[in-house]
Amino acid sequence: MFSREIEQHLIDELDSVPAVALLGPRQAGKTTLALEVGRRRPSVYLDLESPSDLARLEDPEAFLSAHLDELVILDEVHRAPGLFPVLRGLIDRARRAGRRSGLYLLLGSAGLDLLAQSGETLAGRIAYLELGPLQLRETGPGTLDTLWLRGGFPDSFSARSDAASLKWRQNFIRTYLERDIPTFGPRLPSETLRRLWTMLAHLQGGLLNIADLARGLGIDVRTAGRYVDLLVDLLLVRRLPPWRANLGKRLVKSPKVYVRDSGLVHALLGIDTRDALLGHPVVGTSFEGFVIENVAAAAPAATCHFFRTASGAEVDLLLTWPDGALWAIEVKRSLAPKVDRGFHVACDDLAPARRFLVYPGDDRWPSANGVEVLSLAAMCREAAAKAR
After folding, report:
1. Cβ–Cβ contacts within 10 Å for residue 48, how many?
2. pTM exceeds 0.90 for this model
3. What is the bridge-based pairing of β-strands 314-320 and 326-331?
4. Are 162 and 124 contained in the same domain?
5. What whole-number distance in Å separates Cα of residue 113 and Cα of residue 118?
6. Which residue in 342, 315, 323 sits closest to 245, CA to CA?
7. How many helical (H) and strand (E) elements, i.e. helices and strands, does the chain have?
8. pLDDT averaged over the chain?
9. Which domain holds residue 278?
10. Distance of CA 201 to CAs 182, 195, 265, 350, Å?
């Protein structure tokens, strides 16, 4: 089992609020983490995809009322949306009896779907946390190349070989295409969905144009947009929004799009080894997306954007902190990285508090115009320290 950075945060939330929703894609490790936390206190676990466990909730109020003194872990809770009004009543009853925290841990692989359901009935009673695939801070030193190639799903990362890892990811993609995605949206042929997902992998780090995707797939724009939305809601794709400010400049308004797990990018594009990755046109944007996911996970309190003007000024990742501070981050997959002129121009416009250039090496040094060149691991440490 990997030690997850979010574990203590999850425990703290359970000690503060009646319910916590832990959201993340399938196979990211939510169940493993929940059971580990559950071992530390009286708890009961139900998998709502299991017919036998679902049958125990035929009368949910009766079953859950019998476990008010325990932490109830409900896995894939979006499968039973009728539970939420029951949970609200039980939480309020427990509050009146003096228990105000640690009642329910809800696990879901569909972010927005679960948020919408619980937001309607559990407002003021629930906290939300996201658990994505493994990040560099969790896999440890010396794992960057393997984590980047294979991605962070634990079974993929720890597979016995690159070939076994690729096979796992291919099966993972097939399961989503044939079983999971159709349960959340209008049915499209699985091959059309695969083509859409693959097109997004080819577009990694590019500007999202739904009309172009729709034309390439031979479907209408609304349907294409709905399925991109669904992949975002399933926490498989990230739409990185542009920074918007009145700077007197023509700013790019379209979001950038990333398949969030680098291993899935490579599986969708048929990249099986590090050598194949290094020779593929996606190598630079794949590393960029990999860095963005790691930094975003290390800085959950920050808001992520990119910045680009029509004249070419650009910042790959712009972190906005709750105190209003801006951090500008450039990503280069080179051991002799150089900052582009567009980054300096963008920083002149934005006046960020700190400027970083992340590269795949281990050293750290100051560069011109206040830019700090550093490794991804060091960048994540900086972000985590600021977030505390």
Report:
1. 20
2. yes
3. antiparallel
4. no
5. 9
6. 315
7. 19, 14
8. 92
9. 136-387
10. 20, 10, 5, 30
Is residue 65 over pLDDT 60?
yes
How many of the other CB atoms lie within 10 Å of CB of 52? 8
* Statement to judge: residues 146 and 195 lie in one domain: yes
Determine the Cα–Cα distance for residues 315 and 252; give it in Å rounded to an integer: 12
- For the stretch 165-176, pLDDT in tens is 999 999 999 998
CATH classification of the domain holding 56: 3.40.50.300
Is residue 266 within 8 A of residue 149, CB to CB? The reply is: yes
> 117 pLDDT band (50/70/90 cuts)?
low
Query: What single-letter amino acid sits at 79?
Result: R
Domain-ending residue, one of 130, 165, 194:
130
d(CA 262, CA 87): 37
Q: Which residues of 21-38 are buried (b: 16+ CB within 10 A; e: fewer)?
A: bbbbbbbbbbbebbeebb
Say whether 109 sits in a helix, a strand or coil.
coil
